[in-house]
Amino acid sequence: MTRILVAASVVVVVALAGFSFHINSIQHASVTKSVQDSISSAGRQASQALANWMNGRVVLTNMVADAVSRNPDAVTAVLDNQVLTKEFSSTYFGDTAGTFTMWPDLPMPADYDPRQRPWYKDAVASGSVVLTEPYVDASSGDLVVSAAVPVNRKGALAGVVGSDFSLQSIVAMVKSIDLGVPATAFLVNKSGTVLIHPEASLVMKTLADVFPQETPATGATMVETTFGGRDVLVSFVPVAGLPSVEWYLGFAVDAEAAYASLTAFQTAAVIATVLAVAVMIGAMAWMLSRFVVRPVTDMTHAMERLAAGDLTVAIPGEDRRDQIGAMAAAVSVFRTNALERERLEGEAEEGRRLSDAERREREAQKAHDQAEAERAVKALAEALGALADGNLSHRIEVPFAAHIDRLRTDYNAAVTQLKSALQAVGSNARTIDAGAEEIRVAADGLARRTEQQAASVEETAAALEEITTTVRDTAHRAEEVGTLVSRARDGAEHSGAVVSKAVAAMTEIEDSSGKISNIIGVIDDIAFQTTCWHSTPAWKRHVQARQARVSPSSPRRSVNSPSVLPRPQRKSRRSSRPRTPRCVQA
């Protein structure tokens, strides 16, 4: 609880402090702007009055210059004027010849030359009215300002009229400025030299001497600095309308007085923060005690009673819908679990109170079931042993207990199916064996026929070799015939006597050609008949018979010899005309 209060207090303090800081910043800016506006308003009025006062003296000096210009011979009479004597401490005229006339007439050094004085040179250089910077009069000790006006006569410079006047009136005027708050007014020029100040020791000092810590500039921006050990707000207002000089009215406002209202607000904010924290702590302490601490304390007591075994205790806060209600629900679960545990323990105790008779009955039933199971296991083991020995006719005839009798029926059905399957396998094996025997016999016959075919191919090759030899002889005879023809042609060319020999030779050639044709026909018949006979069973039997009659002592005997060849082939050798061969069927 203490931590909650501390955390809440810190949050409130931070929030109020932030709010107060924000309001303080706004009010600080507002007060600063208000002071700036007051300085600007009062400064403009004071600077206007100061400029009017100074310009009045300048106008009076201009009037003196005009009078001197019109009356060059009556300069002293012009200067000896009651108004001038009242307003100016002295009025004077210096001409271009170096003559100096002053009223009141005061003794001057013998070597005094007005043409070498700054007021004379500045007026001549500017050609108009000039004001000098204030200076301390040696005789009176007052601040004095000189106004100088060039005098022209007939378009030429005749001299310069000047007047000296004290700034005591301006000092009094500056001191009389009221801003509504404690403030100090002073006059400075554009270089920052103090011309008028309530403290005489600061006159003709610079702003850096007056404000050494943070020196303000002669601008319109207000600066917060220190003066005389106090915080001040410094601002400047220009004095407009003065000839040849730039002066500024400065104001140093006491910061504590200017921000007095802000200080009061800060004090009020601190007091309000303290009061708010105190009220909040009291309110939160009361609310926490009523809505948190008390319910938690009651729930703690209820949990202690539950831990002690009191299951009739009421859980406080069960009807709440907040975190306290959630805690109460959790405690209620503990109570419910305790009640359930107590109920289960009662049921367990009731189970332990069962009678011995019921327990023995259950044990007897259990023993009976175990005996039935052992008998079933034994019968099944015997049946499996018979099956392992190859006895497929063995069956389990004695029924088992009702809940395991299906094991017996399933075993008997499985053995029956196994027997049928083995019988089918035996029948298929015999069929496969018979088919294998037939395949073996067919393979043997195929092997014998293959050997016979190989022998026939060898005989055919021998016959083709003899045919090739015959063809080669025929070709040789054809070459001889060609030779004879050539000789006959040569003999015919040499002598007609050889014609008869040529005729005879041609006759022989004709006979030889007929023989060649017969030979070629025989070759064709042999080739065709060989092809036909090799493809007939009769030819095969004929070849086998000839092979059987051939003596082993003459293995090189050709199958194409006259004693081996069949009749159709021998007949074709006797033929004298070519013919188309035909296959002879045996």
UniProtKB/TrEMBL annotation:
<dbReference type="GO" id="GO:0006935">
    <property type="term" value="P:chemotaxis"/>
</dbReference>
<comment type="similarity">
    <text>Belongs to the methyl-accepting chemotaxis (MCP) protein family.</text>
</comment>
<feature type="transmembrane region" description="Helical">
    <location>
        <begin position="268"/>
        <end position="293"/>
    </location>
</feature>
<keyword id="KW-0812">Transmembrane</keyword>
<dbReference type="Pfam" id="PF00672">
    <property type="entry name" value="HAMP"/>
</dbReference>
<keyword id="KW-1003">Cell membrane</keyword>
<feature type="region of interest" description="Disordered">
    <location>
        <begin position="345"/>
        <end position="373"/>
    </location>
</feature>
<feature type="region of interest" description="Disordered">
    <location>
        <begin position="544"/>
        <end position="586"/>
    </location>
</feature>
<dbReference type="GO" id="GO:0007165">
    <property type="term" value="P:signal transduction"/>
</dbReference>
<protein>
    <submittedName>
        <fullName>Methyl-accepting chemotaxis protein</fullName>
    </submittedName>
</protein>
<feature type="compositionally biased region" description="Basic residues">
    <location>
        <begin position="568"/>
        <end position="580"/>
    </location>
</feature>
<feature type="compositionally biased region" description="Low complexity">
    <location>
        <begin position="549"/>
        <end position="567"/>
    </location>
</feature>
<keyword id="KW-0488">Methylation</keyword>
<feature type="domain" description="HAMP">
    <location>
        <begin position="290"/>
        <end position="343"/>
    </location>
</feature>
<keyword id="KW-0807">Transducer</keyword>
<dbReference type="InterPro" id="IPR003660">
    <property type="entry name" value="HAMP_dom"/>
</dbReference>
<dbReference type="InterPro" id="IPR033479">
    <property type="entry name" value="dCache_1"/>
</dbReference>
<keyword id="KW-0472">Membrane</keyword>
<dbReference type="InterPro" id="IPR029151">
    <property type="entry name" value="Sensor-like_sf"/>
</dbReference>
<dbReference type="Pfam" id="PF00015">
    <property type="entry name" value="MCPsignal"/>
</dbReference>
<feature type="domain" description="HAMP">
    <location>
        <begin position="371"/>
        <end position="423"/>
    </location>
</feature>
<dbReference type="InterPro" id="IPR004089">
    <property type="entry name" value="MCPsignal_dom"/>
</dbReference>
<keyword id="KW-0145">Chemotaxis</keyword>
<dbReference type="InterPro" id="IPR051310">
    <property type="entry name" value="MCP_chemotaxis"/>
</dbReference>
<keyword id="KW-1133">Transmembrane helix</keyword>
<dbReference type="GO" id="GO:0005886">
    <property type="term" value="C:plasma membrane"/>
</dbReference>
<dbReference type="Pfam" id="PF02743">
    <property type="entry name" value="dCache_1"/>
</dbReference>
<dbReference type="GO" id="GO:0004888">
    <property type="term" value="F:transmembrane signaling receptor activity"/>
</dbReference>
<feature type="domain" description="Methyl-accepting transducer">
    <location>
        <begin position="428"/>
        <end position="530"/>
    </location>
</feature>
